[in-house]
């Protein structure tokens, strides 16, 4: 079932949490709302669930085309998993999952046996069958999160909303649960929106990523789209590490001091300041200059632990430093040592005009 | 690393010993605390029972067969029986509103709940006399309808309710604030109505705090002297509660009677204390004891 919000504004006092947000999530999609803390992503999720109401006005929330803006949360049938799980602390795992079925009005409430069957089925799905009698306090963080998911799924929700689903877990469990969530989504293919501030998580799990900042949507796209073609400086910066090369517009390119990068899409005024964004793995290191498409640099630091070799280089002119990630083989062939003089080629620079406000 | 640094390390290690006071200081402090508690708590408590049983068990139990004592017990039970459930409902409602919702006047409500704590009980009683007494604002209207509040049972119940307002609410507000709203939100998203959310999520989470508040509220309701004294009029067999009855017996030099009745209230205090400790012990381990 599709979920859509239109023209949503939300203020908390004088703080603008959401500023004219519109978004459509198609049926069966797994979408990440990605943004720094305080960007409004959780507020958007809560508005979809009905836990907050948007500012009165033109705002609309639609489930499968039906306007549910004024519906109370209890009527929306949205499954919601809270950041800190919000499990009922006085109920055991079984009763937590059964809660949504037990509170139904008598005429639509399933029978005891039916509830038992459904709950056990869900506990099996989240691999917690043997924990049905445990209290939430007796479970680990990852187990609690899975109980919270099972509880949300028990009411057969039309949409699944997850608020920082893995935020409170340690790194290893988080990675396991990420994969588990994607597999789960493949199994039950329910429309799912999850909030995260972790770009790796968003890029790995989601089929589409919505980048949110300051209450506005900056970009919507597949993980590849937002990573390879970021719409603006914020998205570029937020989705991974980045090197900045500052220069000035000159004759249809930008002059980085010894190297002119073509910038055909930009028509900045001559001499206006500009900046080139380059990801650390999009820089090639050469031992000899190849034409005039490269910059001289000196290697300052080499860290070869891990799958990639992390280098820190310094430009001879201004002394500004930048990072390069290199495959191990390339590093072995070049035999890079601190202090070595090399040349770098920027492979996929993105040019943005520099505004003075920053 | 010369010898000087080694001396330093040793000094730091020495200073970090868990207990640094000399044994005699520790004994002195503990002894002083025990002596204080013994003199101000244990000795008076023991003397209540000693005086009550001064002439043996016969006169002790005989004093409970006195009709005025029996009526005082009944009235105390009645006042507590009305005040405690009312304040229980009000306390839960007020704590729920304050802890889980934002509304204008929230600070004000919190301050109002504390009012009976900050006002002298005598003043609380006087307020009711000024309101409902013969010369009071509503006095003539009540008199013309044949209703008596002051120097009658309704006044005693009202005064008891007033002085015991804060107990349940004050116990629950910090507890509910600490628990937050997320479990209630989870229940509502799962389709529960507000009423079901309250009965199935909110109330189970606060049950021990609520019981604790009710016990303290009850102890105060039964033991209240000042406010009740002002509105009661001390009519034997009609408007005397246990604490007022004790005072009358004492003033009549009926030592055994006074202390026998006093021993009832003392026992109530001891039971309250035991229950309170039991609840605290019951809730000490956060994980798992509940089923």
Topology:
The complex is a heterodimer of chains A (358) and B (291).
Chain A: E1 3-12, E2 15-25, E3 30-34, H1 41-49, E4 60-63, E5 66-67, E6 78-81, H2 93-102, H3 112-125, H4 141-154, E7 159-163, H5 171-188, E8 192-196, H6 199-205, E9 208-213, E10 216-221, H7 223-228, H8 233-238, E11 243-250, E12 253-255, E13 260-262, E14 273-278, E15 283-286, E16 295-303, E17 308-314, E18 321-327, H9 328-334, E19 341-346, E20 350-353
Parallel strand pairs in A: 3-8, 3-9, 6-7, 7-8
Antiparallel strand pairs in A: 1-2, 1-4, 4-5, 9-10, 11-12, 11-14, 12-13, 14-20, 15-19, 16-17, 16-19, 17-18
Chain B: H1 3-15, H2 23-52, H3 57-62, H4 67-100, H5 106-118, H6 121-132, H7 139-144, H8 153-179, H9 182-189, H10 194-223, H11 226-232, H12 242-251, H13 255-283
Helix pairs in contact in B: 2-13, 4-8, 4-10, 5-8, 6-8, 6-11, 8-10, 8-11, 9-10, 10-13, 12-13
Give a quick summary of the entry.
The complex is a heterodimer of chains A (358) and B (291). Chain A is α+β, with helices and mostly antiparallel strands.
Please explain how this structure is put together:
Chain A is α+β, with helices and mostly antiparallel strands and 358 residues long. Chain A contains nine helices and 20 strands. Chain A has helices at 41-49, 93-102, 112-125, 141-154, 171-188, 199-205, 223-228, 233-238, 328-334, and strands at residues 3-12, 15-25, 30-34, 60-63, 66-67, 78-81, 159-163, 192-196, 208-213, 216-221, 243-250, 253-255, 260-262, 273-278, 283-286, 295-303, 308-314, 321-327, 341-346, 350-353. In chain A, the strands form four sheets. In chain A, strands 6-7-8-3-9-10 form a six-stranded mixed beta sheet, with helices on both faces. A five-stranded antiparallel beta sheet of chain A has the order 13-12-11-14-20, with no helix packed on it. Chain B is mainly α and 291 residues long. Chain B is built from 13 helices and no strands. Chain B has helices at residues 3-15, 23-52, 57-62, 67-100, 106-118, 121-132, 139-144, 153-179, 182-189, 194-223, 226-232, 242-251, 255-283. In chain B, helix 2 (23-52) crosses helix 13 (255-283) and helix 12 (242-251) packs antiparallel against helix 13. The relative contact order of chain B is 0.13. Mean pLDDT of chain B is 84; it is low at 1-13 and 286-291. Classes of the chains: A alpha+beta (358), B mainly alpha (291).
């Amino acid at each position: 079932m599709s979920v859509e919000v239109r023209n949503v504004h939300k203020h908390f006092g004088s703080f603008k949490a959401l500023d004219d947000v519109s978004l459509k999530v198609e049926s069966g999609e797994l979408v990440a709302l990605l943004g720094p803390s305080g960007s409004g992503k959780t507020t958007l999720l809560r508005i979809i669930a009905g836990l907050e109401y948007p500012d009165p006005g033109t705002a609309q929330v639609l489930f499968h085309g039906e306007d549910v803006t004024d519906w109370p949360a209890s009527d929306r049938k949205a499954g919601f998993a809270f950041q800190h799980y919000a499990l009922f602390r006085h109920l055991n795992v079984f009763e937590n999952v059964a809660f949504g079925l037990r509170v139904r009005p008598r005429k639509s409430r399933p029978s005891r046996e039916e509830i038992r069957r459904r709950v056990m089925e869900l506990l099996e799905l989240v691999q917690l069958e043997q924990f049905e009698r445990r209290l939430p306090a007796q479970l680990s963080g990852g187990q609690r999160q899975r109980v919270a998911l099972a509880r949300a799924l028990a009411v057969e929700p039309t949409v699944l909303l997850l608020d920082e689903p893995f935020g409170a877990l340690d790194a290893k469990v988080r990675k396991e649960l990420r994969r588990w969530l994607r597999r789960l989504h493949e199994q039950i293919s329910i429309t799912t929106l999850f909030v995260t501030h972790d770009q790796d998580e968003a890029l790995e799990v989601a089929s589409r990523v919505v980048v949110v900042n300051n209450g506005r949507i900056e970009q919507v796209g597949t993980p590849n789209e937002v990573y390879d073609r970021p719409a603006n400086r914020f998205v570029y910066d937020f989705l991974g590490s980045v090197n900045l090369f500052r220069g000035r517009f000159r004759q249809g390119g930008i002059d980085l001091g010894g190297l002119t990068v073509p910038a055909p899409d930009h028509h900045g005024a001559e001499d206006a300041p500009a900046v080139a964004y380059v990801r650390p793995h999009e820089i090639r290191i050469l031992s000899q200059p190849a034409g005039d498409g490269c910059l001289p640099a000196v290697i300052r630091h080499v860290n070869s632990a891990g799958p990639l070799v992390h280098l820190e280089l310094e430009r001879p002119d201004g002394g500004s430093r930048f990072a390069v990630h290199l495959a191990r083989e390339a590093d072995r062939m070049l035999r890079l040592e601190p202090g070595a003089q090399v040349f770098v080629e920027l492979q996929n620079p993105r040019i943005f005009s520099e505004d003075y406000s920053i | 690393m010369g010898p000087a640094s080694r001396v330093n390390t040793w000094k730091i290690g020495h200073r970090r010993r868990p207990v640094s006071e000399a044994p005699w200081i520790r004994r002195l402090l503990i002894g002083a605390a025990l002596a204080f508690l013994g003199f101000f708590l244990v000795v008076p408590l023991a003397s209540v029972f000693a005086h009550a049983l001064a002439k043996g068990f016969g006169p002790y139990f005989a004093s409970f067969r006195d009709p005025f004592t029996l009526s005082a017990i009944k009235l105390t039970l009645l006042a507590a029986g009305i005040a405690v459930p009312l304040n229980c409902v009000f306390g839960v409602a007020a704590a729920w509103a304050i802890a889980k919702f934002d509304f204008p006047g929230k600070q004000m409500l919190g301050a109002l709940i504390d009012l009976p704590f900050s006002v002298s009980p005598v003043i609380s009683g006087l307020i009711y006399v000024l309101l409902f007494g013969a010369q009071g604002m509503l006095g003539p209207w009540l008199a013309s309808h044949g209703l008596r509040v002051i120097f009658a049972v309704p006044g005693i119940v009202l005064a008891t309710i007033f002085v015991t307002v804060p107990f349940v609410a004050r116990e629950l507000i910090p507890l509910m604030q600490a628990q937050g709203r997320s479990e209630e939100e989870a229940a509502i998203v799962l389709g529960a109505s507000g009423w079901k959310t309250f009965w199935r999520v909110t109330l189970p989470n606060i049950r021990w705090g609520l019981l604790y508040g009710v016990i303290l509220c009850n102890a105060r309701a039964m033991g209240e002297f000042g406010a009740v004294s002002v509105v009661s009029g001390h009519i034997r067999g009609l408007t005397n509660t246990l604490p007022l009855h004790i005072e009358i017996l004492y003033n009549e030099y009926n030592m055994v009677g006074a202390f026998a009745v006093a021993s009832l209230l003392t026992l109530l205090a001891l039971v309250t204390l035991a229950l309170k400790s039991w609840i605290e012990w019951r809730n000490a381990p956060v994980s798992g004891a509940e089923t």
